[in-house]
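2 proteins. here.
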Amino acid sequence: MLRTMMAAVLGLGLVAAAPQLAPDRVRTVGNIAVAAAALDGRDALKVTDLGPPFGQTDKLVVIPGTDFGDGEIEAWVAGAPAAEGASAGARGFVGLMFRLSADGRTGEGFYIRPTNGRAEDQERRNHAVQYISAPDWPWERLRRETPSRYESYADMEPGHWVRMRIVVKGDKARLFLGDAPQPALIVNDLKGGADRRGAVALWIGPGTVAHFSGLTIRTE
């Protein structure tokens, strides 16, 4: 069982514990396995990529009952390449989607590439943190058309917990990592616009085994 892994926040500053989320109660999108687990003393939801189809929103665990526009989302995440079957390009991709449509095809997201955090290649380090907007703005297009604007560096290690906090207001979003008072990534033009609303979801990329814990959602 997951013991109070998730919390929903109703209104600014009002925190209420949500029902426990067992793996068989969440809605998954894509070819993934979901299980209760623990990592470094934290109760967690373990999400494992099982293979194709790959895609920006193909690997999701949608949080039931969420309807998010503006506010804050916080969670502890840990991602690492799968021990078997992961390609050389696997980075342990793990993150959060928000303002997600009912069909899971459109939404905004931030994710991290943990193996890039301490790579010996500086260019890889510069790609440790990423913003995407599905389906029209995957990382490939953003990097090609606006190099460095929607990704940045942050220190992290694969398989270790990283605290993510996303602050959203209108068409602007900030991603904070750990206890840093300044954001690791700033987006001033969310591609979905200022008025989009939708669900919150846990997100993983190809070749990843991820853990999620302590999800909190504050809505305005």
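next one coming up
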Amino acid sequence: MSVMFDSLAYVKKLKAAGMPEPQAEVQAETIMEWMEDRLATKVELETIRTDLKRDIKEIDAKIESVRADLKRDIKELDVKTETRFKELDAKTEIRFKELDSKTETTKTEIKRDLKELELRMVIKTGAMILGGIGILFGLMRAWPLPVQYVSPPATQEKHMLVPPAPAQPPVSLSH
């Protein structure tokens, strides 16, 4: 690396300020060495700039590749998800139909059982009524009620003893 540094002018300035010439030369050499070790030249900076541009382009290309891979993966996931949802919808629909069928079967069985129970209840109720009537007749035979039977007259006529009186006009009390 070559750094533009006027060491002769620097030494002259130090001498003019009162520094001995050998000391001023050593200081100028030390500054030159320091600058050569630590400062970059325009050429070095341009090389670094070129390398950075190349690295950035490589990174951009990798980013685009990753972006393309991500888009492809997302599309694949969308397709898989959509397929899975369709499968689940179909399975759910089948299960709902099975449940509907089971519900209808159960409903029919319950109706049949209710009709059977209703018939049994009618039979039992009828049997209880007949049994009660039988018990009542049995009790009536065992303990008959003392009832005297009076036959009705052959014909009954209504006789009016007094014909109804005609309506009387109201009587006024004033004279």
